[in-house]
Amino acid sequence: MDAIILQILNGLDKGSAYALIALGLTLIFGTLGVVNFAHGAIFMLGAFCAVTLSKIFSISYQTVDETQTDFLGNPLKVDTPYVEYWFGPEMGAALIDWSVPLAILFSIPVMIAVGVIMERGLIKHFYRRPHADQILVTFGLAIVLQEVIKYYFGANPIPTPAPDMFRGSYDFSPLLGFDPNSVIYPVWRLIYFAFSALIIGAVFAFLQFTTFGMVVRAGMADRETVGLLGINIDKRFTIMFGIAAAVAGLAGVMYAPINAPNYHMGMDFLVLSFVVVVVGGMGSLPGAVAAGFLLGILESFASTTWATTTIPGINQIIIYLVAIIILLTRPRGLMGKKGVMEE
């Protein structure tokens, strides 16, 4: 039972990333009808927002510390971060330690700007083009973005640690009635799941309970009618593209301590996230979230020793097998609507 609980936790962890990226993909497809293959690159850019802020906080200058000497007796030169000089040693050290959570505030305007520029500068010219053209141009954009990141940050992963107080593990055993240390899980991964649930809830609440969200949902259902009412739906859809980029960016920021950011991490998640969107149903926001967590849990159980020993390589193909089965039995996906991409 403790092993099952651990696998469920692992699945929720993976599913959180899948669900957030798939949610942004579905927002873009549902509003603009664009198949955005650059969305994985946006996830990567979010992770590198965390890397960038961490590097900015770590910029330092050298001073001579008379209290420390080398083996020749000469005073040592030590690196002192500018934030410690400006805000004091304690505050400066805290800013460096909390660089990943603070990157949330840093990344939101950056990712919204990236999304709006991407939509206005490129995507809008492909609204009426075939989906194959959209896939090609956005996939090309994703390659360009990852090569830019590779040029400036290098090809190697860049460790970006979580704050010290969240680097340990939490023992669930006493809460569940098991022996001590039988169900232990990293604290930051639990925070990532809680953060993902918060973002997903915020997006759904925004669409459901705000006037802006209601207009957007109406535009997703019947764009022409909303336009005839005198509402500039194109402007609102551009804003939604920026919000979708921010969602993917936030997923990347918080994922940075789990998997050290590298230039190809967006591609690693892109294909899986599209499978999630298709399984959930193209254009269905609840379907994207449900499929993300479902496939994350299935992938986690398929990665167990028992599963990989019984069926070698099952952990690599389980998501695609489930997608094939669902699409054969329900071509529109779990919660897909009639008419979406059926023309």
TrEMBL record:
It is a multi-pass membrane protein. Coiled coil: none annotated. The chain crosses the membrane at residues 16-35, 42-61, 98-123, 190-216, 237-258, 270-298, 310-328. CDD domains: TM_PBP1_LivH_like. It is found in: Cell membrane. It comes from the Bacteria. Keywords: Amino-acid transport, Cell membrane, Membrane, Transmembrane, Transmembrane helix, Transport. Its main location: membrane. Belongs to the binding-protein-dependent transport system permease family. LivHM subfamily. This is Branched-chain amino acid ABC transporter permease.
